[in-house]
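Design request, tokens follow.
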């Protein structure tokens, strides 16, 4: 496994503190919002999708085993090269040959085509495959010059969408510039421009959920959902206004869990759950240290929401405070994994303060997806 920079092309402008998640139902990455600091001092409300190009079959050279054949000749060999210009594998469902005169008239009825039993049934994006056919020329086959075409049909391995290709024995060349592309979406409604918000993919309802963030100079309290086509505002109540909070989707309980964050002079240690309709504050016996900019993810193997890292801006003395605290939430209570000892707040209300406005750095990771930030 290695990192690779995507080819150039249309993409979101440079920014930080954006939120980005993987939409499992649509098989693509969704990005919303972000921030460019002064002098531009701009917050965004744009929605982008990053998706792999679907499987796209293409045919290379079709090669007959003989340059001329006789009527009633049996078992003439013909091969066809099949490639995939997409970025996902394709399952091949059918392969056939067509025959036509120099005037374009279809004379395929004069031939019997038998695909080889061991022909490949899939084609990846790595290299083309070769299909083989045995052709029997009918005794009444059209005499004269004949063009051989190959026809293949298949389906995208991820979406199941059909794909097909037809090519003559002298096919045109194909050029693929990029397999992965950003696409700017144009929803009718959308959240206000913001940064340092949190986003998560709700796999039960196939929605991207966004809450809070900094909108101009104030933090937001609204909840929005993206269905792949449009944004809809679902709530304006629930957690207090904040930014730098973390959210993860608890797939077992089918709810989004929110933890921490801050607003101006206050850091939060509260825990909330969103069921798709309402926010409900959870009341665990203990709570993590108040924080912003933590990393958060749901561990489905152990049924835990895991939060790592503490950041606060302290004023006595004035300094950045970073801690390597690791906490887990089992749906009812927070605890340190494996009974480890370590700093953890038992406060039930927002705690901590600073003299200046809370830095609105964005969450770095959400549900094992990298999220933009500084």
């Amino acid at each position: 496994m290695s990192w690779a920079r995507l080819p150039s092309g249309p993409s979101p402008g440079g920014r930080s503190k954006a939120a980005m998640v993987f939409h499992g139902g649509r098989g693509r990455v969704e990005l919303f919002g972000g921030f460019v600091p002064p002098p531009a001092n701009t917050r965004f409300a744009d929605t982008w999708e990053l998706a792999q190009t679907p499987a796209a079959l293409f045919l290379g050279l079709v090669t007959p085993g003989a340059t001329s054949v006789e009527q009633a000749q049996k078992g003439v060999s013909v091969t066809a090269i099949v490639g995939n210009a997409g970025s996902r594998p394709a399952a091949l469902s059918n392969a056939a040959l067509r025959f036509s005169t120099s005037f374009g008239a279809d004379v395929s009825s004069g031939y019997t085509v038998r695909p080889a039993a061991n022909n490949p049934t899939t084609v990846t994006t790595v290299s083309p495959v070769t299909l083989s056919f045995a052709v029997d020329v009918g005794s009444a086959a059209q005499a004269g010059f004949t063009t051989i075409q190959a026809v293949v049909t298949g389906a995208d391995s991820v979406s199941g969408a059909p794909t097909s290709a037809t090519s003559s024995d002298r096919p045109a060349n194909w050029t693929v510039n990029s397999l992965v592309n950003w696409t700017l979406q144009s929803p009718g409604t959308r959240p206000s421009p913001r940064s340092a918000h949190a986003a998560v993919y709700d796999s039960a309802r196939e929605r991207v959920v966004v809450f809070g963030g900094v909108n101009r100079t104030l933090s937001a309290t609204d909840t929005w959902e993206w269905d792949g086509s449009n944004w809809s505002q679902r709530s304006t109540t629930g957690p207090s206004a904040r930014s730098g909070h973390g959210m993860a989707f608890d797939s077992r309980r089918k709810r989004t869990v929110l933890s921490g964050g801050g607003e101006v002079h206050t850091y939060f240690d509260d825990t909330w759950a969103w069921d798709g309709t309402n926010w409900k504050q959870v009341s665990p016996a203990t709570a993590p240290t108040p924080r912003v900019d933590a990393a958060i993810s749901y561990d489905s193997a152990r049924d835990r929401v895991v939060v790592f890292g503490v950041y606060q801006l302290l004023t006595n003395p004035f300094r950045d405070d970073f801690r390597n605290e690791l906490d887990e939430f089992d749906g009812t209570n927070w605890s340190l994994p494996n009974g480890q000892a370590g700093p953890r707040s038992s406060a039930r209300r927002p705690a901590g303060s600073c003299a200046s406005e809370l830095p609105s750095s964005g969450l770095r990771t959400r549900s094992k997806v990298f999220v933009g930030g500084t």
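Comment from the thread starter after seeing the answer: thanks! The chain has two domains: 19-51+183-370, 57-175.
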